[in-house]
Design brief:
The chain has 221 residues and is an alpha+beta fold. It has helices at residues 5-14, 21-47, 69-77; strands at 57-60, 63-66, 80-88, 91-99, 109-116, 124-132, 135-140, 147-154, 173-180, 184-187. The strands form two sheets. Strands 9-8-5-6-7-4-3-10 form an eight-stranded antiparallel β-sheet. Strands 1-2 form a two-stranded antiparallel sheet. This is FixH family protein.
Amino acid sequence: MSATPHTNTKKANANVWYKNYMVIVFVIGLPLIVVIGCIFFIIHAFNIKDSPVRDDWYMDGKSLYQDASKDKLAHDLGLSGIMRLDGTPDDYAVRFELKSAQNMNYPTTLHVKVSHATDKDKDRDFVLTHESNNIYTGKFTLDPLPAKYYLNITNDNSTTKTATDKTKTDLWRLTHSQKLPAQNVAFLPLVAFDDERFALPDQRDKRHQRYAPDTIPPLAQ
């Protein structure tokens, strides 16, 4: 008994490619998801860029360097300080006590940069004014949400970096990172510039410790 034309038509319709779920899922569906995902991340990369770096970095040719001369001078002068924040984040009254291990002429103003760890829109710059002796005061506002911040205090009040700025030898900087809001922020010189960190340990007494004091190692004979 032969199949009727109507039955043959149903079988033919059931075997067409666009009715096969394997083709829809694996041949069309997965590549389409990958293409859509790529387009999304490309748009995301163009619209949401990384925050710029706020520090003493500069380019020399194709090389990136960090200028640590200000930090080194602060270490050599023995500079330190305590910043006290009074009030609320939307109206902070700042009192900064600058301490020095040497006699120094206190600058008229100090420039402060408060940089948010991830959001550049929450960065704040303000100026501290010299009041008397080693006391500086100022005001600034801060986002009330607790977050990590990088704080820099320097006697360099310039806002642009030029070639002549690199030749200045009287500029110093104190840095610290801390979670804000807080009441006190302590600034200390960087221990990376301590002299003892550059000295290699004395190994003279350990060279021949495996042998008796009156013997000579085999390689030295």
